[in-house]
Amino acid sequence: MTEPAVQVPGMGTVHHLDDHRPTPPAEPVNLVKDPTAEPTSNPPKVVPQVSRVVRTARALRTAATHERTRTAGRFTVRHGMYVVGGGRIVARRAWEGRTAARYERMLRVAEAAGNLDLATEWEERGQRFRAARHQRRMELLSAPVKAAKGAAAGLGVTAGGLLLLGIILAVANENFADLATPTLALIELVRWIVVIITVVWGPLVILGPWAALLALWGVGRHQQAAPQWVLPARPADVGAPVTPSVVVTALRDLGIAPLRQAVKEMGDAGAAMLGPIRIAGCGVEVDVTLPSGVATDEVQKRRRKLAENLSRHEHEVFITIPQAARTVRLWIADSGALDEPIGPSPLMTDTTLTADYAKGRAPWGQDLRGDAALISLYQRHMLITGLSNQGKTAALRALALWLALDPRVEFRVADLKGVGDWGMFDGLATVLIQGPTDDHVIEATEMLEDLVKEMERRIQAPPGTVFTPLIGIVDEAQVAFMCPVVDKEKRPYGGSKATARYFMAARKIHNQGRAVDVLLYQGTQDPTDQNLPKLVREGAHTRASLALGTESQARMALGDKAVDGGAAPNLLRPGLDKGTVVVASDGIKIPAGQAALTVRTHYISTDDAAEIAERAKALRDGVTTLHTVDNGPDRDPLMDIMTVLGDTSRVLTTDVLKRLTALSEEVYGEWSHLDLKRVLDGTGAEPYKSDGRMVVGRERLALVLANRDTQGSTSAAE
Description:
With 718 residues, the protein is of the alpha/beta class.
C-alpha cells in the first residue's frame, strides 16, 4: 500500500519515493527574453558580502574609539605617568639636596627679577653650601680610621661592661657560671635578630619595590605630574584658593613675552617675585614685583585676562600701583563675594549716633577688605558722579544725613531732579529747591550766589570769628551747567565761561569757601567737559564715582592720577555694582601706594532717610525751609544806576555805590566795585578812567538802555 502524496505550497505535489506512478512532463523553459513581457516592478537587490577582515577591522576601531576604552586608556597612562613624574620629582629633589643647583636656580630668579641684593644673598648662600660640602668630603677621607678606632673602643667597652655585669651576677648568686650569662644573653639576642631578619627579608625584598613605586605614585599624583590630556575632568575652578603657583601661572599666561620668558627662566620658583599673600576682607592681596622689561601698565591693561586666568570675573580682581618700583598690587576677591550685600548703615542700627563735622568721620560703607570705610567731610568740597540709576543720590544723601546729626550744620539743597529724593530735608535745610526746570536752575544759581555772599561776609569778619558749617548741595548739577537761560544782563546761567553765573558761583566757593566752612557738594551724571567743566571738577577735594562708561569719563570724574594709579570706575558693572564708588580723597584712609579706594556704600532707602532726618530735626530748635530764594525787591540794576547818575554826565564809581546803597540798602548795601563792574561789563557802559579816576558815563548808559528797550519792545519785533 502506498503513502499518499503531500501537497507543498509553491512546489506542486511531492510524491513519496515509493510512489512509482508516472508524472506529467514539465513545461520547457524559454531562455530567450520575451520582448512583449512586462518587466517586474521591484527587481531583487544584490547585497554585497562584507569580508570578515573588514568586519573585524570595524569592530576593533569601534572598540578602540569607544568612550570606555578611551577612559581606561587615559586612566592607565595617567597613573603610569604619576609614577614616572614622581620619580623625576624625587630625583630632582635629591639632586638639589646634594648639589648647589637650588642656589643657582634662585640666583637666576633674583637676576631675572632685577633684585641684585637678593642675587648677592643667594650667591653667598651657595658659597657657604660649597664650603660645607667640601669640609664634609675631606672628613670622609679620615672616616675609616675613625670608624675602626670607634669600633674597637666600642667593642672593648661592651666586653668590659658585660664582664662587669657577669661578675656582679656571679657574686650575687654565688655561682661562678653566671659570669658568662650576660655575654650568652647578648649572643642569643643577636641570634634572634638574625632569625627575624631571615624571616622578614623575603617579603621585604618582594614588597619593597612596590612600596617604592607606591611612594613615587603618591608624589606624582600630589603634584599632578601627568600630561593635561590624561588628567581627570574637573569642574570649573571657581573659588579655588589663591596660591603662589596660581598667581605666577596667571601672570605667565598674560601674553607679555618678557614676563613669560622671565618666569620660564625662574623655573618653578617663579613665586619669588610675589610678596606674602595676605587675607584682605573678602579676598586676598599680594604685591608682584615685575621682572625687568615689564611695565606695570601692561599688566593693568590685561585685567580681564588676568582675572580669567585666576578663575575670577573681571570685577573680582583689582590692580593698583603701590609706591615700590615695578610693582603691582593685586586684590583678588573670593568668588561671588562682591555680589553679596553688605550690612545696614550704622545710621539705622544705632539710633543714638551723633555726628561731629570737625572731628568725626561718616560711616559710608565698607572697602573691599570688609573694613568700615569712614570719611572725613571737614572743609572738603565734594563731587560725586556716575551713570543714571547707579545710586549716586543715595550715596551723597547718606553723607548729608550723617552731617545732619550735627545740629551746627546748616544745609541749602537744590535737587534738580525733583522727584522727592531730598524731600526729608524739608524742615531740616534752610533752603530746599526741587525741580528740573529752568526756573529751578535759576533759583539754584541764586542759592549758590547767596552762599558766595555769605562766604565773602565771613572772610571779611574779624580774625578769630567762629562760623557754623554751611553746606550747599546741588544734585543733578549737569542740569545747571547745561541751562541755556540768559538773565537781563545777558549773562547765561549755564555754561563754563567766565560770564556763566552758576559756574562762577561754584568756582568762587571752591576757591575760598573751605577756609570759612562754606562747602559745596555736587552730584552729576555722565561727566564731560560740557556738563561738568574742568575747573569745577578739579575744585573738589573729595571726588567719588560710581559706574561709568569709558576711561575718559573716569579721568574726568577722578583725575588722571587716580586712574593711572589703578582707579577704574568704568570697569564697575552698571546695575550689579550699584552703590559701589571709587573714592579719591585725603579724607578717607587709602592704603599706602594707592591713589583711590573702592567703597561699597550702605544703602539707605527714602523711608529710612526720612526716619534719620526726623532724628536730626529733634536735635534742632526748628528750621524754617524756604522753597524759593528770597532776593529782596526785584530791581533793575541798570535803571537804578541811571537813576543815581541823575543829570551828571560822569560820576565816580565810589559815588555810584554810595548812591545805590542810599537808594536800596537791602539790595545794594553789600555791593563792591566788582559787583558794579560785573553789572556793566559787556553792556557798552563799562566804567572808564577820567582824570585818572574810574567813572560811569551817563550818555553811554542811556544809549544802552535805549537799545535794550527797543530790542525788547513789541513794535521793534514787528
